[in-house]
Amino acid sequence: MSSSTLTPSTPPTEQDRPSAPAPRIVPRRRPGQWAAAVVLLVLLALAIRSVLRNRAFQWDVVAHYFTSTAVLRGLGLTLWLTAVVMALGFALGALLAAMRLSGNPVLRAVSWGYVWLFRSVPILVQLLFWFNIGALYPQILGVRTVNLLGPVTVAVVGLTLHEAAYAAEVVRGGILSVDRGQIEAAQALGLGRWRRSRRIVAPQAMRAIVPPAGNMLIGTLKGTSIVSVIAVQDLLYSAQLVYHRTYQVIPLLMVATLWYVAVTSVLGVGQHYVERHFARGSERR
Amino acid sequence: MSADLGEHGTTAEGGAPSEGNAAGAVRAVRDAADPAPGQAGPPLPDGATAREHRTPAGGAPAMVDVRSVHKSFGAHEVLRGIDLRVRAGEVAVVLGPSGSGKSTLLRTINHLEKVDSGRISVDGALVGYRRCGDRLYELREREILKQRTRIGFVFQNFHLFPHLTVLDNIVEAPVSALKRPRRQAVAAAERLLARVGLADRAASYPRQLSGGQQQRVAIARALALEPKLLLFDEPTSALDPELVGEVLDVIKDLAHQGTTMIVVTHEIGFAREVADTVVFMDDGRIVEQGSPAEVLDRPRHDRTRAFLSKVL
After folding, report:
1. What is the pLDDT of residue B21?
2. What range defines the domain where residue A109 resides?
3. Is residue A243, in this structure, part of any structural domain at all?
4. For A65, B120, B221, B287, which has the most beta carbons within 10 A of its beta carbon?
5. Which residues are in the ABC transporter domain (chain B) (predicted)?
């Protein structure tokens, strides 16, 4: 009785015949998506038009100063400062991460304390503090502190110490992301501690380190603009020096902005290649 | 070594006098002394001390000698007095339910896991410690690493290095731990890859291989150090059923060539075919051990019977 309903009793319909072409699949229409896209593009076009037509931007002034010696020198200092702070910050950060992951409770506590302190204090406060360190220690090793620590040195020290606290966490996260079994396998093969870190753990940790490190690199590039408060002539401060003289505030801010955008774009491309390098072996093909 | 193996194999199958077999096989020497219930095992006429001085039947010295090893993780005692001996050229298969301490035992043998008490020797050398009077001092890491190069370990989840090619996975340890010239290590690695049937995958990355192929690479990687002892920790448990055979074939091949090995596995058929000795563990103890015929077909202990009835 019920079994008869389970067996196909009716003859195959037109569509079921093998000779008939398979029915074509038609995706669902999405009119809302189209409407949203059109509205957004119109708004964007209006915004771009207003920027290009607003004479107050003074694009001729922007073009004039874009490659001026003062601005390029400022750009050079910004790039140099970014590179030095990233390199020293990550070197110190890697050391702090290693301390935090060590078996020694004193090293662990010191590393934790460092990260806690330097992440807690605003970078502006830290910079002003190092700038005025002479008030605490008028002399260091017999040299007047003011002579020893010029504005650029203070900028490097202040930014590096701050950077290291964040870099430590990024590196630690990367190391923790490596499967414990990888280290055991390396131990079982008799690889020494240094070899394990450098050859097995570090390359795999890099996959987790590069994206946040890229974030930090771009953050640092723009963050160096804060050193204008201690009169270091970076990109932003160089632009400011010009507009203090000429009162062309907006065009010169545009000069600095365009340079920051340009460099950030280049760094983004670079990050793509670095990530691809460390992703080798991760694809199944 | 292979002659010795054959001789032993015949004894096991023929069900020869248990005494000779017992002496030749891995044996829980403390069984008789241990008062714990369910620790019966085959009754030994002589005490543990007497057995320690006995030379195994084939005349081969013990490659692995585990004596009253205890190990706890927190409050949980994982190993409760393990005694085990494996002769050179012998294949010992360790069976037992999950959580019985099989893997932990295997990991203590190359000091990936430290023991709480007891001692382990491989090829006559204490693993992980140096004896000085009545104390065992833990060795420096460098010395432990050197010991490990003589003990190959194959993991359940392979643990190949995913960022290195198959060839570099195999070459890494001989070059960095044994300081072999790279050219020589590469030649050896290529021979090993051919031996496990993967000569054409040297340039692949591990993730491009099937699980069975990855485990065969892992075996080749362990063999690259020319170890005196191979430890397998459930080498086929992470594999799809149709890939188990290719890995077991490689291990069987090694067994036939007289490699000393301890294999923790759930593959009863493999144990029956390859093992010289089957060791059954439960709850941190060795419940019984003997030839495959003894343990698998005529288990003496209820727990062994209960386990076998579930897995067979």
Report:
1. 42
2. 80-227
3. no
4. B221
5. 64-308
